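User: I'm preparing a small set of examples for a lab meeting where we compare how different chains pack in three dimensions. I only have the primary sequence for this one, and I'd like the structure in token form so I can line it up with the others. Please keep the answer compact; I'll paste it straight into my notes.
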Amino acid sequence: MQQHKRTLYILYLLVTIIIVGIIGYYLLLDITLMDAFYMTVITISTVGFQEVAPLTVPAQLFTIALIFLSLGIIGYSGSQLVGFFFGGTLREAWREQRMNEQLSQLKDHIIVCGAGETGQHIIQSLEKEKVDFVVIEFEEDKLEAIKEYENVIAFQGDATQDEALEKAGIHRAKGLIATLNSDANNLYTVLTARQINPDLLIVARAITHNSHEKLIRAGADKTVSPNEIGGHRMATMLLKPNVIAFLDTITHSGKIDLNLNEVVIHPSSILSNKTLMEANIPEQTDLIIIAVKEKEDDDIIFNPTKDHLLTPGQTLIALGDDNNLNKLKKLAGS
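Assistant: Understood. Below is the structure token output for the 334-residue chain.
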């Protein structure tokens, strides 16, 4: 935006000096406007062609002043052009154009509002899962840190405002994560996003203890408090170290490459309307079915029995590596 204003300023200066030259020569030499324009151009460009009329003393003084003035303006314009081509501005303009093209093509993506410490962990997780997403960050230093990631689409903007969310393609997005630096900003972001896209899945960061309910009322589907999670984890590390070691294996992919993931059963799936024993999932995929989520509500059945009936719309929560998870997705019709 600053470069755009600077470019307009340079154009205004050039147009102004040309107009001044035309008016000056027209009045001082009593010539036509075309001749005055010609005199102005050869004077500013210092090419030294012959004048269209003998110069009077006032015209000579005017020419001297016009040359000095034009040299200053042209010199300033040239330095700005050099800075544009060699100082990174051209690269930034190209990156901005490329980003806008990428934004226009995004669909069913996730919008990450905020690129602080929590936001950067979110970005790393989304990159690992190869999910399409875009980042909105207001602070320039945090935005520069994000640009170190080659494939991340990020731009400077205020996520509490409609314009930034619409630029991020909120009408086409499937989810939004509000992880700004205050509960008030997260609240405004959730309110704005819910108003623009009522079908959006919204997860919001809760900083203070009493902000969970407010964010839910504002339109968030889920809330997360990094402080609460961190506190519980630190206590569990001390009291139940083996449990944490197991969770680290799942969530951080240690020596054993395991992961927790979810797979939805589609109507066309060969697993549909079969019991877990009939589906024979562990033998076909080497996965462990940890839980099943029913489609009607949020009830989750942990450690389902072999007689549990699998129906379309249910979500299987499985433990295993990514290759075996792809096998389960095929069986589920994903």
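A couple of notes for your slides: The radius of gyration is 32 Å. The chain has a mean pLDDT of 85.

User: Perfect, thanks.
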